[in-house]
Amino acid sequence: MILGRRGRAQAAYSGPEFLALGDLENVDGVIDGADLDLGAADPVRPGDPAAAMEVRLAREFGQREPRPGCKRIVFHYLTSPLVVTGSARVEALRYGRNKLVIDESGLLSSKLLSAKPRGEEGSLDTSLVLRSIGYRGNPVGGVAFDEKRGVIPNERGRVCDRVFVSGWIKRGPSGVIGTNKVCSKETVSTLLADFEAGRFPTTVGPVRTRRS
Ligand SMILES: Cc1cc2nc3c(=O)[nH]c(=O)nc-3n(C[C@H](O)[C@H](O)[C@H](O)COP(=O)(O)OP(=O)(O)OC[C@H]3O[C@@H](n4cnc5c(N)ncnc54)[C@H](O)[C@@H]3O)c2cc1C
Question: Which of 14, 78, 139, 210 has a CA 20 to 30 Å removed from the CA of 5?
């Protein structure tokens, strides 16, 4: 069972990853009706194709009939773990159900909705709990750091004079290699603009060459 604190449209997996799950041999992705029909509780912003794709795939999984003898991966959305219980070993997980709220930025993207408890709780019997809540950047000495987001604050990749960032430390731990290509193009164009604007030193040390 996979618990996700937000809805289908905000799930942190990418569409292609979700799609690939559907092709695993002898494994069924299962989404219960209650989690499929979140309606207004899980809005998809119009013009957000990635979120729309995730919702569409979730519906497709939901319509499939689980095959006898296959392993099942059951998705539960709008659910957060609260407490792991058990005496000598893990025996159960207490969870809370959530609602989605629009954060300060407004509904600019379906991904920007936050999960808040809605006051309903339940329990799942289990002997194993695995945590998978993403990654976080670490600070680097002498460079500003945004503790809340785990990123180095920057403007189009520029941190300060002659210091640049790209990738997850620039925008947070999301996206794939292709996303980082676009991200680093932006950083490099900022760097080149700074170079052309004379923000780099004009004198450099001697170039070291290897002795033959
Ligand atoms: C489990 C997992 C699976 C993934 N699978 C895919 C996939 O199949 N396809 C895909 O496209 N993307 C995938 N991704 C995403 C992809 O890995 C990231 O988008 C990408 O690695 C981010 O690049 P980055 O340069 O920001 O960070 P990284 O690739 O993490 O590079 C940061 C580098 O900085 C180094 N570093 C850290 N601190 C310091 C320091 N103080 N001084 C010097 N060096 C330092 C680190 O050692 C590291 O080498 C996956 C990510 C994860 C976590």
Answer: 139
Rounded to whole angstroms, the Cα distance separating 208 from 199 reads 24
Would 210 be classed as within a structural domain? no
Q: Enumerate the H helices of the chain as residue ranges.
A: 15-21, 33-36, 49-63, 168-171, 177-196
> What average pLDDT score do residues 167-175 get?
92
Mean pLDDT over 164-180 rounds to 93
pTM tops 0.70: no
Other C-beta atoms closer than 10 Å to the C-beta of 4 total: 20
Same domain as 84, residue 54 = yes
Mutate to test the pocket of ligand 1, among 130, 131, 168 (most ligand atoms within 8 A of CB): 168
Nearest atom in ligand 1 to 178's CA: 11
Atom of ligand 1 nearest to the CA of 170: 26
Q: Do 109 and 143 belong to one domain?
A: no
Query: d(Cα 152, Cα 172) in Å, to the nearest integer?
Result: 9
What is the rounded distance in angstroms from the CA atom of residue 99 to the CA atom of residue 115? 6
Q: Say what the pLDDT of residue 212 is.
A: 41
CB neighbour list of residue 90: distance below 8 Å, 6 or more residues apart:
84, 126, 127, 128, 129
Residue 12 is assigned to a structural domain of this protein: yes
